[in-house]
Amino acid sequence: MLVAERVSMWRGRYRMVADGREIATWDPSWWRTGGDFEVDGHRFGVRANGWGTKYRMLDEAGNEVALVERAGRKHWSVRADGRTYEFRRASMWGNQQEMLLDGVTVGSMRRTSGWTGAIEADLPGMPLPLQIFVVGAQIARWQAEQSAASAGA
């Protein structure tokens, strides 16, 4: 299980912990929706399109290694290494996302605290960098939604 814990209320940084060991830090971008992280000595960038419906995971050379499509929709997907991972929002009002395999729930991701912003992700069969990307893209979406809500208030 991957757990994302907010490091600072002001900056939006998260530390990623797997099996009780810190493995990466999600560092949000200041100027665009997305962020950066490093895992196992490899640095990755995450960038969103203008509408925040697609997130690209880029390697150090700027090559796309994964893509989230239809982010924020009831059904969305992640493509990487010739594989597609399907997700769906469990409820219109909740914040749990379910990972599906042939239409059956096999994993999940959810915000465990609205106050601290902590997130738990159980994404079996998905490589660790890809798990961090999926959680990071979800963090970026939630932060963009919060910014839009506070700007509209």
List the helices and strands and how they pair.
Layout: E1 2-6, E2 14-18, E3 21-28, E4 34-39, E5 42-48, E6 54-58, E7 64-69, E8 75-80, E9 83-89, E10 97-101, E11 104-111, E12 119-122, H1 128-152
Antiparallel strand pairs: 1-2, 1-12, 2-3, 3-4, 4-5, 5-6, 6-7, 7-8, 8-9, 9-10, 10-11, 11-12
Number of helices: 1
User: What class would the helix/strand composition place it in?
Assistant: alpha+beta
Give a quick account of the main beta sheet: strands, pairing sense, barrel closure: 12 strands, antiparallel, barrel
Strand elements, count: 12
CATH topology: Tubby Protein, Chain A
* Share in β-strands: over 45%
> Strand sequence of the main sheet, in spatial order?
1-2-3-4-5-6-7-8-9-10-11-12
Mean pLDDT: 88
Please identify the oligomeric state. Answer: single chain
Please identify the top-level CATH class: Alpha Beta
What is the distance, rounded to the nearest whole angstrom, between the alpha carbons of the first and last residues? 36 Å
